[in-house]
Amino acid sequence: MTEMTTLALYVAAALAEIAGCFSVWAWWRLDKSALWLMPGLASLALFAWLLSLSGADYAGRAYAAYGGVYIATSVAWLWLVEQRLPDRWDLAGAGLCLMGAGVILLGPRPAA
Fold first, then answer.
1. Coiled coil where (predicted)?
2. What percent of the chain is predicted at pLDDT more than 70?
3. Could you identify which of 6, 14, 23, 83 might form a hypothetical disulfide with 73, taking C-beta atoms 3.0 to 4.6 angstroms apart as the criterion?
């Protein structure tokens, strides 16, 4: 699996996870109908399936690298969906997390 494919997979998984969690947020915190939970559950199942498609040899490594992408995608969600402009600390933190994810994903490892 190429790095771009992995990144696309992680972004899709992050969107599915954020959407699923946002459905609970909307129901609980924004007084939306409990019907919001149904697509949210489906979205969370999609998230888990997408993340399992990662080409990483170990689940822990896949999850660790995904975490950085999740954080950056969450900041994008803040901006694009919730209409709140990220501040410099949001952007700096997301950038640091993406660098960490890159080290985990792209770091040289001895052949198995």
1. none
2. 99
3. 14
